[in-house]
Amino acid sequence: MFFNKIGVLTLAAVCSTAGLAQITLNQQPTRQIGHTLLPQPNPFNVTTVNPNLVEGREFFSPTGVAVDTSVTPPRLYVADTRNNRVLAWKDAVNFTNGKPADLVLGQRDMISTFANGPNRNTTNPLSTGFAVPSGVAVYQGDVYVADAGNNRVLRFRKPFAATDQVPDLCIGQPSFNTTTVNYPGGQLNSPTDKGLALNNGNQAFTVAITFDSQGNLWLTDAGNNRVLRYAAADISPSNKFAPTPDREIGQLDFFSKQPALPLNGVGRLTLNQLATPAAIAFDALGRLYIADADSNTPAQLSRVLVFSPPFTTGMSASRIMGIPPTQPTGGPALTDAQIYSVAMNSPSAIFFLPGTQGIGVLDSGYHRVLIFDPYDQWPDVSTATSPSAKFVVGHASGISGIKSTDTKSLFSNDGNPLPSTSTFSGPQAAVFVNNELYVADSNNNRVVVMPLQSGTFGPATRVLGQDRFNTNSINLIEGREFFFTGSAGNDSAVALDSTGDVPHLYVSDPYNNRVLGFRDVRSLKSGSAADIVIGQPDKATSVCNYPLGDINAPTQSSLCRPVGLLVDASGNLYVADSLNGRVLRFPTPFSHQGNQVADLVLGKSNFTSPPLTDATARNMYVPYGLAFAGGNGLLVSDQNLNRVLFIPYTNGGFTSADNGKAATKVFGQTDFTSSSKGSNDTGLSSPHHIAADTDGRPYVVDSGNSRVLIFDQVLNNPDKGAHAAYTLNGVGGAEGIFVNPNTGELWVTDPGGNAIRKFLRYDQLVFNPAPTVSIPADGPIAVAQDQYGDLIVGDGTNRVTFYYPALSSVNGASFQSGRALAPNAIASIFPAGTTFGKDTATAFDLPKPLPLPTVLADIQVTVNGVPAPLYAVTPGQINYVVPWSTDTGNPADVQVLRVSTGQLLAASLVAMNNVSPAIFVSRPLSQGVSLAAVINGDGVTVNDPTHPAKRGDIISIFGTGQGMVSGPPADGDIPKNGVVSANASLRVVIGTDYTDQITKLPGEENRKPFEFSGLSPNYPGMWQVNVQIPMATPPGQTPIALQLNSVGSNDPTVVGYRLVIYVQ
């Protein structure tokens, strides 16, 4: 066959490349865990930086809930406030626990959470998206969203029936492109009639939206201390902006703002002024109820005001709820039950039970629902200012058992760290529909549904935002996510256990109070779940010091903000349990099933000792980084005591007899009882991660001083006040560090500079302190390398990323750099500073080479996760066929893997197009000239100088990159059902012009621009073009080229040669 004669199967002489001394790592991560998808083409354009994993079934502080009863079954909408979106479910009645949402508003997809709106989210802007949506309502199937961060209310017409989610009403702004507070004035403390103040510049207010029986819209404008009404006629038209309200309650008029209510009896009983209104509701007789509280000290001013129609601007309430009775003169003191059955703390929702069953108030600050008699059954105002609740939901105490001192009956989740079917934590919204109460249980990051039972509510029967009733993590956890970005900073650590055949990865998850263990680091990908969890009973729980949630009650298996990690030669894991002020050792975690129990504690005398702040040789305050000082002992950085402790081994290691063992050396302080910050070469300021080289030198990331201090070998240092041997400056706000035990090179993370930098080993560093490599990263905080030199990074977007050796992939016919590939193109991969194993194999060595195999010599190539057919594998080159399904609109993720171990050998993004035309080279002829792979008109003879083609004959040109065809065969196979033509538009150049432009000579038969363009019947990925040589073609050496969809084939200015054929 022709192909064997000219060696096309070897694709331009498949060549082996020598291994380089240094691996060239990608400048972009190729894999990640902790997020749903790795963004492409730019993996740093993450769609969320919120804690844990976001995929459309979780919440982060939901503050609004609404049910659409205009359809059957009713639909549910939830304002997922801190994820900056509204999630919707088609069926509010029959959903299963933790069900994913069916629709999202305010974001482009289910995995995005950045604040949207005008001048926000420059990466992927959405002017009609949300920033801190804090309220939602439904009226006649249309959804109204309080977009608090953008000072506006938007309406979306029947979202489930809409093609595009574009609002047609904007209250508070003149367009979708402004966010002006109190438009048009723009002054926070100067209300206007058209504007809103739904945030104070620092935080958003909870916003209530409701409709009266006439279809008028009412909303709480909390920043202006008022409630506004918009007439139905003024808001019903489409594309309405900044409508003017016709009623205002809480202030004297639309433009004034009275002084804040005093936090005393006078303020609480003022009936014509509002503090921070948070909820509104109408009863069956049209009375208006407004929940109101002081935003700073709600326990001193919280109430519900009742207004009777007709409503007028500046009117006064007729009754008030939430004002406890006063102690009668000379009478007994009021009981807690008498006080707290009336008093409230940030009421945030109001609803009405059927018939005369009563009124419900969601009392957010006391984490409960109070049920009162209906208005007509309240005691006369002369007898009691406010009614007393008859039922309480959310606390086991009931009304009679309320105790203000029991840390239960007024506390979150009834005093427990985890919720149940009957408890709340800071609930912010509730709606009663069809004898069920839907509660946005904000601090439990869930919505629960509770059935009405005998005038009160039974335990919840359904939950969204969590998979079960006894979990409450932000954005729902299940072992696939991380929470690195907490109130104390951005913190994490990564550690590899390479002591066995399978490399394990440990990741500290500080603000989920756990360490996750992944059994095989080589097989990880986006969304991979951990195999074990340390510090929690399961992967869905995140309690500090489980089960009590008490910082003063650690156990032998609990953790509270763990950070530093370290694995010893036996596979034991050391954890810096920072807020418990200790270091724990967990013996070989992957060999233990179930609850992981520590067998060693350092920094405390025993496993149950509470935290202490004192600086002593035995005590740790906030241990952070860990490192082994050669074979001498353990180094521990203490973030708050500004020091590093050295605790020596006992006979080469630690045993349980070493619990609470004292340190013998301290770095950063002049003694064991000092803790002040220092900036000289003996001082430290908030040290973070630490490392040591194989000589035992400590490397300390002195974050507060933006430097790395390197000390002499640990045993050569004095016990106190050691001077650093070398100071590495210019590292930015460094946090993480890793010293490669094989090369001595060190990697330092610079979160502020969004980079990980490599420096020379110590003996070279002191002469050349400049970084040798800088790799981009998203706020990197932790770094490690595996045994292959691959980089593993914990970053500030709550994910772990993996940097592998780079590769290049080019068209296998032209080897033209910068040319995008296409589906079904034959391509070649070359490594950067590494090799693809040691073996060589070709598909045609196999008994049945077709369809082409997807594994050769234990090597597999994947393109966007799809195994690619392979022609040949050598240590320095792989020839493969791009799968038909490859997306042509984005760069493709091309990876080379060792199948037996799952090791990722190399990876890079490769440009893709719909075509990638190139002609194969038969052989070079001279400098800058190569012979094209062409068969003459007889169908057998290879075109060359001694076998020229005849003018007028139909020759066959062989290339690749024709792009999509109609009815393609399977990947790696040849057509099975006859001729398969290419779809792209083709022009052929022979000589100096296109064949469709070359003049036809007298007597020459009519000829087509080309006879055939399509798939080769013999070789997968091969493109065959049959074309007639024009009679006007000059004899001799003649240039030849193809143009497909205006894209030319082998470009001489790039490949360094021009292609020719010979014509006689």
From TrEMBL:
Record's protein name: NHL repeat containing protein
Give the span(s) annotated as Disordered: 674-696
Which InterPro entries does the protein's record reference?
6-blade_b-propeller_TolB-like, CHP03437_C, NHL_repeat, TRIM-NHL_E3_ligases
- Polar residues compositional bias, start-end: 674-685
Q: Where are the NHL repeats?
A: 671-714
Q: Which residues form the signal peptide?
A: 1-21
Q: Which domain of life is it from?
A: Bacteria
Q: Which UniProt keywords apply?
A: Repeat, Signal
* Cross-referenced Gene3D superfamilies: 2.40.10.500, TolB, C-terminal domain
Q: List the PANTHER family.
A: E3 UBIQUITIN-PROTEIN LIGASE NHLRC1-RELATED (PTHR24104)
